[in-house]
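User: My collaborator sent over this chain with a note saying "see what the structure looks like." That's all I know about it. Can you take a look?
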Amino acid sequence: MVFSFPMFKTCIDAFACDYSIKPITLYQETTLQCFIRPHSGYLAIAIICLLIFYPMLSFLYPNLQFQNRALDLRYDPTYLVVAMQIKLVVAATGAFFAHPDIVIYQSYICAFVLFGFGILARKMKPCLVKKIVPL
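Assistant: Without extra context I'll predict from the sequence alone. Here is the result:
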């Protein structure tokens, strides 16, 4: 779960091309032209990784927390699924609004989404452990 955001960001970066310049290049790697042979392989790998990794992490991980008896804190599975969706939105925002001229939109969108997520977390009270016993 810790490495989910970098994984999402890396896969989504394959789709973020800079159309403001010719030839069209990736935001993250300006020497790589979009939609030609090396980039199409990168796109294919990113799609395969997202198709395998994203459903597994989004829907399987929340239920695995109940199998691990060493965990002190457990969260409502619905909350963890919503958290994964939020991470995907933030990663996509970072990939598609990476140009320095429009990075302010990235900040606004992420602030709005995370503020909403904070309100949701406050209302849901997702932690299933009501009291923590001190050591």
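A starting point for your reply to your collaborator: Residues 37-64 form the longest helix (28 residues).
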